[in-house]
Specification:
CATH architecture of the largest domain: 3-Layer(aba) Sandwich
Radius of gyration: 18 Å
CATH class of the largest domain: Alpha Beta
Helix content: 25-40%
CATH superfamily of the largest domain: TPP-binding domain
Bound molecules: nicotinamide-adenine-dinucleotide
Number of strands: 9
Strand order of the largest sheet: 3-2-1-7-8-9
CATH topology of the largest domain: Rossmann fold
Number of domains: 2
Number of helices: 11
Strand content: 15-25%
Largest sheet: 6 strands, parallel
Length: 245
């Protein structure tokens, strides 16, 4: 791992603007299972993409909330803590780098760790709203109500996460940020979920050097100039030591 750490540290050191695309693997060391595990936990006779979908929410909002609540451990939302990976990105920012965090995560941990420029590409678990009247609710309301209904109009409210079948409104901005950055860093993503998984190709097309920290290979690995195959906590601790020396 040493030579890849050196290589990625040099890429970071030489960059002023770093775009960082993060995925569920970023938060596993905070105790939140990644996508694969969430699929593993899911036992009902439907695929993950079918359950976490706008079609299911519209057809059966009661069923949707029962499944969604289990998959995303709604009871625990807001109680997780950032880990060494989230802290590393906030630390880079404190050293004067511009760090644009493009995250697929909906757990709010980047902001909690102190990152200031965070694009939550798949939305957030921390709020929900009524599609009928627009009333906004904090996750606490959702935690307190098994089937959360709007206090204003009685409709069942929708979590502010981007469901399968919905557009990803911030993705064009993410493409632009990645294409204009000095370096793209990807952390903890299988790069299997579109359209976000096109970000490394977009950066490569613009000539932006890229690195990935992930436990397992991805089908997009050809777009990276460097790979660190390790746990994010371990890799970020080593990178930080290197950058401080
Ligand atoms: P994914 O589960 O498809 O891939 C996670 C990747 O991270 C895997 O390749 C795995 O090998 C790697 N990984 C896991 N733990 C790691 C660690 N400690 N260090 C380094 N690598 C590690 O995740 P994805 O690509 O983000 O796609 C999943 C989708 O599910 C996203 O759309 C996301 O919105 C959603 N999701 C979010 C959360 C969250 O907010 N924390 C959790 C589960 C799912």
């Amino acid at each position: 791992m040493n030579s890849s750490i050196q290589r990625v540290a040099a890429m970071i050191e030489g960059a002023q603007h770093i775009a960082v695309l993060t995925g569920a693997g970023m938060s596993t060391e905070s105790g939140i299972p990644d996508f694969r595990s969430a699929k593993g936990l899911f036992t009902v006779n439907r695929s993950f993409a079918e359950v976490v979908s706008i079609d299911y929410f519209q057809a059966d909002p009661v069923g949707f909330w029962k499944d969604f609540r289990d998959i995303f451990r709604i009871k625990l939302a807001g109680h997780y803590q950032p880990n060494a990976g989230h802290e590393f990105l906030a630390w880079l920012e404190s050293r004067g780098k511009r760090v644009s965090v493009l995250t697929q995560n909906i757990d709010g941990l980047h902001t909690q760790a102190g990152s200031h420029e965070v694009l939550e590409l798949h939305g957030t678990l921390m709020t929900a709203h009524c599609l009928n009247c627009g009333e906004v609710y904090h996750v606490g309301y959702v935690q307190d109500h098994e089937i959360p209904e709007c206090r204003e109009c009685g409709e069942i409210i929708k979590p502010d996460v981007v469901l399968y079948g919905e557009a990803v409104p911030l993705v064009e901005r993410a493409f632009r940020l990645a294409a204009r950055a000095d370096v793209l860093l990807v952390m903890g993503s299988s790069l299997e979920v579109g359209p976000v998984n096109l970000i490394p190709a977009e950066a490569a097309h613009a000539g932006v050097p890229a690195a990935i920290i992930n436990l397992t290979p991805t089908s997009m690995d050809r777009f990276f100039n460097a790979r660190i195959e390790a746990k994010i906590g371990e890799a970020c601790t080593a990178l930080r030591e290197r950058l401080e020396s």
